[in-house]
Design brief:
about 300 residues, globular, alpha+beta, 9 helices, four-stranded mixed β-sheet, five-stranded antiparallel β-sheet
């Protein structure tokens, strides 16, 4: 690791942090420190970093906006590569949009609406970036990002860049092939449909109001905690099991929307994990259904 630190001091001065508190970089606001957190400023820097990480055999974890992850209390060993600073490009070539992985979904949805392109309204309130959304084929209100993707540019752990088309991405519910590959999403081309900009913005406003009304936006969370089981809704199963408001320390099943686990203020990752395990056990005892986490769990157990 000392050789890698020397490399960072020369090649990335001011762009890395030692013992970075991951609670500051995730929407759950929990998690121990990362050994090193690096924020590259371009695709070229991402590839340079990956080549150095590969050469030094340093463990590497990729982080976007930190909105769908739970970092464990002992933190993350090795390097966290935070991509938000590096990949912010967005070019509209109607009806297509070329967009880099660090662009927030809210910005992307607004830009599409301004350009009179419909299809991204569902994503306007998802607090994540495009890369993470494509990785897990994020969706809401009947829409999924994978339905809009035409090509995706990825880089492998050795720094080699290649393009994947939509069929190669193998989009399924909360799944893409990149989850199995270990590659990093750099950018994508999306294809939307033309529509009246004001009508698109009105749909975004309607969805925003629904989120404000139904979701616990006043507490830190990672969004929907569990995947939707086939034939069921996770929130309904959790509610039917009598778990609305259930707490372990400062971790709580939201009283407003039982599909969310929230941090009441000082929750630890261990409390959140215990609560999730309790929910899974009690839901299974009631319904015979095992819930699967939608949240990615990162770090040292």
């Amino acid at each position: 690791m000392s050789g890698f630190l020397s490399f960072l001091e020369k090649a990335f001065p001011g762009q890395f942090q030692i013992h970075a508190p991951m609670a500051q970089y995730t929407t759950f606001r929990v998690g121990g420190p990362a050994d090193i957190l690096v924020s590259p400023n371009s695709q070229e820097e991402v590839c340079t970093l990956l080549a150095a990480i590969q050469a030094e055999q340093v463990p590497c974890t990729i982080l976007g906006n930190g909105s769908n992850v739970l970092v464990l209390d002992k933190g993350i060993r090795g390097v966290v590569l935070k991509l938000g600073n590096a990949l912010k490009g967005l070019v509209i070539e109607s009806p297509r949009i070329r967009v880099e992985a660090g662009v927030l979904l809210s910005r992307l949805a607004t830009a599409a609406a301004d350009a009179g392109l419909t299809g991204l309204e569902f994503a306007s309130g998802i607090p994540g970036s495009l890369g993470g959304a494509i990785l897990m084929n994020a969706g809401a209100y009947g829409g999924e990002i994978g339905n809009l993707v035409r090509t995706v540019t990825v880089v492998d752990p050795k720094g080699q860049v290649r393009n994947l088309d939509r069929e190669q991405m193998d989009f399924r519910y909360r799944h893409s092939v990149v989850m199995e590959m270990g590659d990093i999403i750099l950018s994508a081309t999306l294809e939307l449909a033309p529509d009246d900009p004001e009508a698109i913005h009105e749909r975004i406003r309607d969805l925003t109001q629904k989120r404000i009304t139904k979701q616990p936006l006043n507490f830190p969370s990672a969004g929907s905690t569990f995947k939707r089981p086939p034939g069921y809704f996770a929130a309904a199963l959790i509610d039917q099991a009598g778990l609305r408001g259930y707490r372990v320390g400062d971790a709580q099943v939201s009283e407003k929307h039982t599909g969310f686990v929230v941090n009441r203020g000082h929750a630890t990752a261990s409390e959140i994990l215990q609560l999730m395990d309790d929910v899974k056990t009690r839901v299974h005892a009631m319904s015979g259904v095992w819930l699967e986490p939608e949240v990615r769990i990162l770090g040292e157990k």
